[in-house]
Amino acid sequence: MRVRPLQRLVDSAAFNTTIIVVIVANAVVLGLQTYPRAVDDYGDALDLLNGLFLAVFVVELALRILSYGSRPLNFFKSGWNVFDFVVISAAFVPGIRESSTLLRLVRLARVVRIVRLLPDVRVLLIGVFHSLPPLVSMTLLTTVILYVYGMVGWLLFGDEIPEDWGNIGEAMLTMFILLTLENFPTYMDRAMEVHPWSWIFFVSFVLVAAFVVLNVLIGIVLNSMEEAREIERRRALGIGIGEGPPAPIAERIAILRAALDELEHELAAKPER
User: Fold this and answer.
1) Are 39 and 33 in contact (CB under 8 A)?
2) pTM of model > 0.70
């Protein structure tokens, strides 16, 4: 499959770098508009720059859509492309253009587009998104642990230290703070004044919650990051998730395709004798 020149352009590092520079400049202008003095002195110039940035983004969006050739609707198969289209086209919606607050929010959303142009950040966001389902289970497990330990803490210290353990809500809040190990010695010392063996309660909570739960959480995030890298790698090779041959074979096919495209390009450039 021959790569179209326009597709090669929008996928090039120079093109993406240019768009990143424009997005950063747009962010700087938006930041300057938060200063009343800058708005008073350079308000018209800042508005003009915002208009120029929007024009650049419209041209970029048009080029990306046209790069799909005879199948421009394939542009909308990517969630990132849909996000770009919505964010850029929203500036032309009549209701938004008349509202300064909504218009500024739309301009701010355009700055967020820098994420799709930075592969490492994109992988990070995909990893966070894929870690959400197992994190729900982890949240439920952590809540159960906080509830159980909170009830035990209320039974042990509720009468003597009511400000920290007076009811289940305060007890669970105290346990949540202890989950971060914040002021851990202070809470334990006060509890040991009530019951000298209270250290068993606190040490067991740290072992179960702070160490086990947090380590499992880290494992979930790391696993999701690996999945995100695999998704990005397959996207770069043009392979759908769950499709295609194993990774090593897919990489060889991609290399062969690139070599064939290069050979076809060289043959087409040679003059006929």
Assistant:
1) yes
2) no
